[in-house]
Amino acid sequence: MHTHLSPDYAHNPQAQEAAQLLRQCVHCGFCTATCPTYQLLGDELDGPRGRIYQIKQVLEGQAPTRATQQHLDRCLTCRNCESTCPSGMQYGALLDIGRQLVDAQVARPWHQRAVRWLLWRGLASPLFAPLLQVGQWLRPVLPAVLRAKVPPRQRRAASASQTRAGVHAAVSPPPALQRVVLLQGCVQPAMAPNINAATERVLAACGVQTVLAQHAGCCGALAWHLNQADPALAQAKANIDAWWPLLFPTDGTAAAQAIVVNASGCTVMVKDYGHLLAHDPAYAERARQVSSLCQDLSELLPHLLPMLQQVLPGAVRQRRSTDKSTGGKALPRLVFHPPCTLQHGQQLRGGVESALGSLGFSVRLAEREAHLCCGSAGTYSVLQPALSGQLRQRKLAGLAAQAGEVIVSANVGCITHLQAGTTTPVRHWVEVVDAVLHGDTTD
User: Is the dihedral of CA 394, 71, 31, 352 positive or negative?
Assistant: First the structure.
């Protein structure tokens, strides 16, 4: 798709990048078949191809309107269309540019600006944890619409350094993977603290040490997708500065071989640091190296599998579902929801299900539409609650969890969003592995 940039954008680096991205589009329309918002609304302008044309028109000089902004806002950035596109169109990168260009010209209503400011400032703030705790105490008396946004308090599990009972580290760690940096995240430690604790414990059982960077914080995805580009890049730079001494120490300490992220939405962002900071002379090369060292927790599974098969109770022993070491309890039957940021954003498919199956778990995907978004999409569930709710209902119908099954995923946003719509337990897959590892297979 050839684009004639307007004079206003002729020397704009973002616009020039967008023009290059637009050339990848071949107008085929395959993307509409897998776009969640197009399926719900049936409007070409609320599908990838329609949004691509709207961005093209803006680049060619047509003034965007509030309607243009709304159509771009309704996109979940699930990137399902990228998995479908036969020409490899990088739609997510184009949409990011399009949203920034439109927001620079179209003023939002005051209430939208207020909500976005609160999300940007609030979720990554040190005040988020105590405020969430207050909300959890008041949860029984909150209105239903607010109660759905506040997850119940989660039992804070002990970290790897606090517990070793019943678990011994594998004889030898995976080759070239003995020490890793763990991204803690911004909302996850408060909303779902057991995910990080479970990650540390599982990695420790496999002989892998996790270290935390004291001054690392939010990955920047929250601000980036709210079109706060400068704050997002500042957060990325702060993380690079915090991780660099652990990855490339100069004091003789052991170097970490990878940055491990257990929220797939954050993994996508960190893996994109190299692209986002490519034109920053002070950070371009370091950002590229950090991105190359970033791995989603699921990517470690092939390396961890031999060790887990040694230490995980009930695993790979004639593929039975019970074992004396777990007190005779059955391993939970799992229904896996692969987040969009895992299967489309990172193009990682099948790894989690295959590994969990090798460990003795019964795992299945949704009965239908496993490729579609659940409607969480970061702050989308707050900014577009009606569409988000419809997608959650559709996703839970596809998952159709039966009695005794646990829904598992790989992103805290999907987990909390789905849990608000069902009484079936929804957990991170590493929590389930950790529970069995420590002799607890209860939900």
Answer: negative
Helix, strand, coil percent values for the chain (each to nearest 5): 50, 5, 45
Residue type at 254 in one-letter notation: A
The set of residues, in sequence order, having a beta carbon less than 8 Å from that of 440 and lying 6+ positions away, is none
* 298-327 mean pLDDT: 66
Angstrom distances, CA of residue 66 to CA of 70, 112, 424: 6, 12, 40
Q: For residue 261, what are the β-bridge partners?
A: 296
Tokens 């592995």 sit at which residue?
433
Kindly report, residue by residue over 58-97, the tens digit of the pLDDT: 999 999 999 999 999 999 999 999 999 999 999 999 999 9
Copy the structure tokens of residue 16.
């020039």
pLDDT tens per residue, range 14-37 = 999 999 999 999 888 899 999 999
DSSP conformation letters of 48-65: HHHHHHHHHHHHTTPPP-
Assess contact for 408 and 429: CB atoms under 8 A: yes
Handedness of CA 258, 261, 264, 270 (dihedral sign): negative
Tally of CB atoms within 10 A around 402:
9
Question: pLDDT tens digits for 402-441?
Answer: 878 999 999 999 999 999 999 999 999 999 999 988 766 5
- What are the b/e assignments for 139-168, b being 16+ CB within 10 Å? eeeeeeeebbebbeeeeebebbeeeeeebe
Distance in angstroms (rounded) separating the CA atoms of residues 342 and 316: 26
More confidently predicted of 100 and 174: 100
Question: DSSP assignment, residue 211?
Answer: E
DSSP state of 329: P
d(CA 394, CA 375): 9
**Token representation of residue 338:** 């692969």
Helix, strand or coil, per DSSP, at residue 260: strand
Average pLDDT, rounded, for the chain? 86
d(CA 248, CA 292): 14
Q: Token match 């969009």: residue?
A: 340
Report d(CA 219, CA 9) in Å as an integer: 30
CA dist., res. 255 & res. 253, Å (int):
6
pLDDT of residue 162: 47
pTM of the model: 0.88
Per-residue pLDDT at 330: 64
Cβ–Cβ < 8 Å for 264, 432: no
